[in-house]
Design brief:
This protein is of the alpha/beta class. It has one domain (22-210): SGNH hydrolase (Rossmann fold), CATH 3.40.50. The protein is built from nine helices and five strands. It has helices at 3-22, 32-35, 45-53, 68-78, 93-97, 102-119, 145-165, 174-177, 196-210, and strands spanning 26-30, 59-62, 86-89, 127-130, 169-171. Strands 2-1-3-4-5 form a five-stranded parallel β-sheet, sandwiched between helices. The longest helix is centred in the last third of the chain and has 21 residues, at 145-165. It is globular and about 45 Å long.
């Protein structure tokens, strides 16, 4: 093994260890994509991410079908403390699916992002946002793919703009989700949600950006 390769491996091991020591509490906020509808608990992307980063698995506040307002209400009901070292936010697909306005989404997403910052001890560097995946590239959404994609592009422009305004990390996984029809293994058995394999690809993108 070359000296350069040895040093690189040691530096990587050190950085991962420091990260795991820093992050002790991870909170994942979202909907079906965060709770991992139609995949096992181990395959949920927040759990895969925690395993990859060698940190404790997260507390997940997410339920299939939730819109931004549903998530806000759930956070209030959970009575969470402002004690998290890492907070993720992925929300909006059900706003689009249920025909809610992008204007309403903009207001409610920003409120949720502010709450995420608060829960992350007020530290923006401890928060990250994940883009909304495109279910138009699944068997379920294929027939209306063009409309779905256009609408989700609008919602993602909104959440990205707000996230960047607050100088918070933003991870675009939408492009990965658009491989669902060309690679059926990336779609869960229900024909709608991502499979564990797709979530693994998300985690590769997110983990690299968090280091």
């Amino acid at each position: 093994m070359s000296r350069f390769l040895t040093i690189t491996i040691l530096l990587l091991a050190i950085s991962m260890n420091l990260f795991s020591q820093t992050v002790t509490k991870f909170l994942a906020l979202g909907d079906s994509y965060t709770i991992g509808e139609s995949v096992s608990e181990d395959e949920r992307w927040p759990n895969q991410l925690a395993d990859k980063l060698q940190i404790k698995r997260p507390k997940i506040i997410a339920t299939t079908g939730w819109r931004t307002d549903d998530l806000k209400n759930a956070i209030i009901s959970a009575n969470l403390k402002n004690e998290y070292d890492l907070v993720s936010l992925l929300i909006g697909v059900n706003n689009q699916y249920q025909g809610k306005s992008s204007t309403q989404y903009e207001v409610e997403f920003e409120d949720l992002l502010k709450k995420a910052i608060q829960l992350a001890k007020g530290k923006r560097k401890n928060v990250f946002v994940v883009s909304i995946p495109d279910y138009g590239f699944t068997p379920f959404g294929k027939a209306k793919q063009e409309t779905i994609s256009l609408q989700l592009d609008e919602f993602n422009k909104i959440n990205k703009r707000i996230t960047e305004r607050y100088k918070i990390k933003y991870f675009n996984i939408t492009d990965i989700s658009r491989k669902g029809l060309e690679n059926p293994a990336l779609v869960a058995a229900d024909g709608l949600h991502p499979s564990g394999k797709m979530y693994t690809q998300w985690v590769e993108v997110i983990s690299k950006g968090l280091k």
